[in-house]
Amino acid sequence: MTEHLIACHACDLLHRVGDVPLGGSACCSRCGTPLYRPKRDSINRSLAFTMAGVIFYLIANTHPFLGFQIGSQLRETTLATGIFQLYQQDMFIIATLVLFTVVIVPAIHLLSMLYILVPLRAKMTPTFLAPVFRLYLMLKPWGMLEIFMLGILVSAIKLVKMATIIPGVALFAFMALIFVLSAMTVTLDEHLIWKKTEYS
Amino acid sequence: MIKETDETSPGPPTADPIIKQRRSLSIVWLVPIVALLIGGWLAYEAITERGPIITIKFATADGLEAGKTKVKYKSVDVGVVESIEIGENLSQVVLRVQLNKGAATYLTDKTKFWIVRARISASEVSGLSTLLGGAYIGVEPSVKGKPQRDFIGLETVPLVTSASKGKRFKLVAPRLGSLNPGSPIYFRQVRVGQVLDYRLEEKGQNVGVNIFIESPYDQFVRENTRFWLASGLDMQLTANGIRVDTDSVVSLMIGGLAFGTFSNDPQGQQVSENMQFKLYETHDEARDDQYTIRKNYYVEFFESIRGLSVGAPVEFRGIQIGSVSDIQLKVLPNQMNFSTMVGVTIERERLGLSAQVSKDLDIHIREMINEGLRVQLKTGNLLTGQLLVDVNYYPDAPRVDETKYNDLLVIPSLPSSSQAAIDGVTSIIKKIDKLPIEEIGQSLQGSLLGIEKLVNNPDLQQAMQSIRKILADVETTTHNLNADTMPEVTDTLEELHNLIQELKGWISADSPLQEDLLRSLQEIGKAARSINNLADMLDRHPEALIQGKTIEDQ
After folding, report:
1. B67 touching A (Cβ < 8 Å)
2. What pTM did the predictor assign?
3. Banded pLDDT at B248 (limits 50, 70, 90)
4. Beta pairing class for B190-200 and B184-187
């Protein structure tokens, strides 16, 4: 019913794309680059994953992340204390980087998604949909939870010989958060969001 | 692409269907629901696992760290220190402690908190784990008492917690000795408890010592139990020799207590907790104190009592029945001389007398004196020369009149055995003195002179010479006898020998003589038989002698 124009990312050929059946995809007629794939129940699914993500994010940030036990001395860390420790050890840049990529960016992701998806699901259009969604897309490459997770795993494996590592609740919440955020990204139909802006 | 239908085109009349949007939630919503459940459970746990927050005041927070220092009961974490602040008047620190769930039940005014740090004392080494893991706060929960949230921590680790079973007792002592909190308490040299603490009584006259006896040893503390200091080394030089006492090497170093029951009746009543006992200085003092009924007497001596001291034993046939309590000099009014009055205390329970008899002990002692009861000094120890007072019966002792000194009955004494020996030797010497030694000497000398005369007499010498001559004659006679007579005797003997040899040859079994003799005898036998036959025949046929033999008879 609705048609709109999509320029091919690769060859810049302008297409007029109408409704694409579910499961199908529209490709560039010249170079074959996929232009658009409709996603089933996108808003609902994304919103569900976003909400799960919010919960996991809160758990990951409030509960102990890892415990190191050497002898009878137990040291437990949360994400926040880990960053604070880095800062105290004069690794200001790394501390900032970790804070930004692991705490702030995911928070913005989740909040912006909530801001966009909750009204859309209620058949309304949020006021600042376009700038918020743009911010979301701009910050998307900066969410580096997976990389942080890998770093944690590598250092934990190295420390296993020296100390007993007690994985905390936050660690599992963090893993879940990674999966949920990925799922959220996958199920999000960006075109649909942009389409919604047109009605505003 | 769906072709749009032309509204103008003819066809069957149609109606627009009502399109219902799917209202039901899609499966994807399970994800946030699960997340919510997990989050909710975590939150619920966090809230319910949290116990009460309490404050504890300590003099110092040495070794404590906010957020890390744990509160432990029996090495199990029951809480964590949340913050450490300086108290209002700057004299103490205030800890805010987050306790685990369920702690509220045991937070009462009797609950105690203390800081466990590494502690090394002579009796024990404890809290070594705190060297690595840091200090922690120990707690002794108590469900009895009023609920409380603000506590004042103990500065010292309590030695006994409510978990340890046993009884506490209080001892009252004139001095502390070398006791310390933690000093061991021994019963038959088995360690059964320890000293908890001590403090001076209010007036400073005594020291109160709180002790703890572990179960099941607390049952050995009876009403008649006595406690004494087993501190260090107890060396005594008494009539019984040198005595060295110590209960253990540990108590030698850090002091200790011992207790025991001396009375013959060990089944004294069990005692309740916090009962008060007297603490004796030594084992002996504790033991002797059980003889509470004492009787004092005096003994008069007329000899040196060097080596006898106050406290020396009074023995009856070797068994101690009392001790010397007093030594005085007494002027003998009419002789310008002194005697020694020795006061003796008889612990009459030691005599094993029945109550009735011991009540009228004086009367009985009088009777005994009449029976010959006497007191004598004896050497208790040859090495040290310590004396003891020995009581025994001497039926042969001379009778004495009853006397009193300081209103106390005087038991008559006999000179000591050494004194008696000296007296005996003295009398022997006196007798020797009286012997007429000079006269004996003179007569002895006379006898000797007579003997000398006899020996020097010339007749005796002549007699000796003639004896010598006689002896020489005897010698020559013997010599002749040897030279002349002996060879002849030898020859004769030899001949005799030959003769015997020959005779032997004759009588030997295979000799010719023997054989001849045998044959002759056989012949004689035959002849005899013939004669016999002849005689028979003649007997039957006497006529044969005349008529000759008839053939018929053959």
Report:
1. no
2. 0.49
3. low
4. antiparallel
